[in-house]
Design brief:
Layout (H helix, E strand, L loop, with lengths): L6 H17 L1 H9 L4 H12 L10 H13 L6 H10 L1 H8 L4 E3 L7 E3 L6 E3 L16 E3 L7 H33 L1 E2 L2 E2 L4 H27 L2 H26 L10 H12 L5 H14 L1
Parallel strand pairs: 1-3
Antiparallel strand pairs: 2-4, 5-6
Helix pairs in contact: 1-3, 1-4, 2-3, 4-7, 4-8, 5-6, 5-7, 7-8, 7-9, 7-10, 8-9, 9-10, 9-11
Length: about 290
C-alpha cells in the first residue's frame, strides 16, 4: 500500500515539526525526567495552540502525522492517552483542545495511566503511588476499573502510540546514519562497510513497512488494522533502536548521549497499549472472526 499525505496534511505536519524543533523536545524530555515539567508543558500548550489537540476524533490521519513528529523530537507527555480521552469523550474535547492534559488506562492490557500526577483529567482515577517506568519522563500510575468506551480508548491510544514509535524509530535511525558517516575505523567511515549498510537498510525497511499500516488503521479505525499497525511499529522501532545501539557502541548507552533518550522511550512504548505478541494474536483472532 502507498500512502501519501495531502498538501494540507503535510503543511500541518511540518508546522508541528517546526514547533517541536524550535522547542528542543530532547531537552524538555531530559528536564521532565529530572522533575522539571515546565519545558514539556510549554510544548504541550504550543501544540494545543496550533490545533493539534483539536484533531481528536475527527482527523485521525492528521493526528497520526503530527504524533509521529512528537515521537521524532522525543517530546514528553501523555499524548496518545490524552488524545484517546478526547476521542472517546467529546464533552472533554474543548478543555483538552485548550491545553488541558488527560490520561487514561484500560486494564488489564494497559493497566497504568502515564503522567497522572500532572494530568487535569484521569479516566478512570489513578492510584497516587507511581510504579517504575523504563522511560523516566513517563511515570506510571495504576488504575482500578475501566474508562467509558474502553475499546475506543484502547484502539485510539494504541494507534497513536504506533505513530509515536514510528517517529522515535526514525529519529534513532537518522542519528545512526549521521554517526556512521562520521565515525572512522581502519581509515574508513563505518557507514562504508557492507554489514553496517545492511543493518541500517533493515531498520529503514521495517519502519517504511510499518508506516502504511499506521495510516491505513487511521483511515479504517478497524481493530485488526490497529493491531497490525501497533505490532509492526513496535517491532520496527525496537529494531532501529537495537541497530543504533550496536553501531554507536558504548557511547550509545550513556545517559549524556541523546540516543539514550530515544532508546528508553522506545523500550517503554514497545509494550505500552499491548505488546507485539498481544496484537498479533488479536489480529489473528480478528481475521478468524471475519
Amino acid at each position: 500500500m502507498r500512502f501519501a499525505l495531502t498538501e494540507e496534511q503535510r503543511d500541518f505536519r511540518d508546522a508541528v515539526d517546526s514547533l517541536l524543533r524550535d522547542a528542543n523536545g530532547i531537552a524538555a524530555a531530559r528536564a521532565w525526567a529530572a522533575g522539571d515539567t515546565k519545558p514539556g508543558l510549554a510544548i504541550w500548550r504550543g501544540l494545543a495552540a496550533i490545533g493539534m489537540h483539536s484533531l481528536a476524533g475527527e482527523y485521525p490521519v492528521e493526528l497520526c502525522a503530527a504524533i509521529e513528529r512528537v515521537g521524532y523530537h522525543a517530546a514528553p507527555g501523555p499524548y496518545p492517552e490524552s488524545l484517546a480521552v478526547a476521542t472517546a469523550h467529546p464533552e472533554a474535547r474543548e478543555q483538552l483542545a485548550a491545553g488541558a492534559i488527560a490520561t487514561t488506562a484500560v486494564p488489564p492490557i494497559a493497566p497504568y495511566a502515564p503522567n497522572a500526577d500532572i494530568a487535569d483529567l484521569c479516566i478512570p482515577p489513578a492510584d497516587p503511588q507511581p510504579v517504575a517506568s523504563l522511560d523516566p519522563a513517563r511515570s506510571l500510575f495504576p488504575v482500578s476499573g475501566l474508562p467509558p468506551h474502553p475499546d475506543l480508548v484502547f484502539d485510539t491510544a494504541a494507534l497513536l502510540t504506533a505513530a509515536q514509535l514510528l517517529g522515535l524509530g526514525r529519529a534513532a535511525l537518522d542519528m545512526t546514519v549521521a554517526y556512521a558517516k562520521q565515525r572512522v575505523q581502519y581509515g574508513h567511515a563505518i557507514g562504508e562497510y557492507q554489514a553496517v549498510k545492511h543493518r541500517l537498510a533493515d531498520a529503514h525497511t521495517g519502519l517504511e513497512f510499518a508506516r502504511p499500516l499506521v495510516f491505513a488503521a487511521a483511515l479504517s479505525a478497524d481493530p485488526g488494522d490497529v493491531s497490525a499497525a501497533k505490532a509492526a511499529a513496535s517491532d520496527a522501532a525496537y529494531r532501529a533502536a537495537r541497530a543504533a545501539l550496536q553501531l554507536h557502541g558504548a557511547i550509545g548507552y550513556t545517559d549524556e548521549y541523546d540516543l539514550s533518550v530515544y532508546f528508553k522511550k522506545i523500550r517503554a512504548l514497545h509494550s505500552a497499549w499491548g505488546s507485539p505478541s498481544f496484537h498479533r494474536d488479536r489480529l489473528l483472532r480478528h481475521i478468524g472472526d471475519l
